[in-house]
């Protein structure tokens, strides 16, 4: 599976107006805490890979509820025009135990990214309005595909255009990379 993603900095109020105008469907609002791990056998920063444990809580009536935890492996970027990469993800029943397993086999926590995320569905894509602690406001447009990466990327660019955003402003650096001081690509 490939995750085709395009991310830009953007003011959320203006994007919410455009989402309303194009009749995007609000999916949910969540809080996410992502713990990234360093591998004992290779440098993920050098290989452009990531191992992440994500704890996500949905908002219900303004309160956080029902935490879900997933573990994700992200491979290196596969093209020069977006943040497309191979991705494997699965649910984890107990996040604390998964964290302990990672550490027991030599994967050390490297950094944590915290964000509030509002998700919308539009034309088969997920549009996320992300408020990332220490970084600010971003919009991500993404879709998962088994093939047809180029078409999916062009579709993501079209969604950005529909929202009044310019794909040429995209940032290929991850939130983790930005927090660790990597330059925005």
Helix content: 10-25%
What's the arrangement of strands in the largest beta sheet? 1-5-4-3-2-6-7-8
Number of strands: 8
Which descriptor suits the 3D outline? Answer: globular
**Order of H and E elements:** EHEHEEEHEEEHH
Low-confidence stretches: none
Main sheet: strands, sense, barrel: 8 strands, antiparallel, barrel
Strand content: over 45%
**First CA to last CA: what distance?**
24 Å
Total number of helical segments? 5
- This entry's quaternary arrangement is single chain
Q: Mean pLDDT score, rounded? A: 94
Radius of gyration, CA atoms, in whole angstroms: 16 Å
SS-based class? alpha+beta
Overview of the structural elements:
- With 185 residues, the chain is α+β, with helices and mostly antiparallel strands.
- The protein is 23% helix and 48% strand.
- It has five helices and eight strands, in the order βαβαβββαβββαα.
- β3 and β4 form a beta hairpin.
- The relative contact order is 0.25.
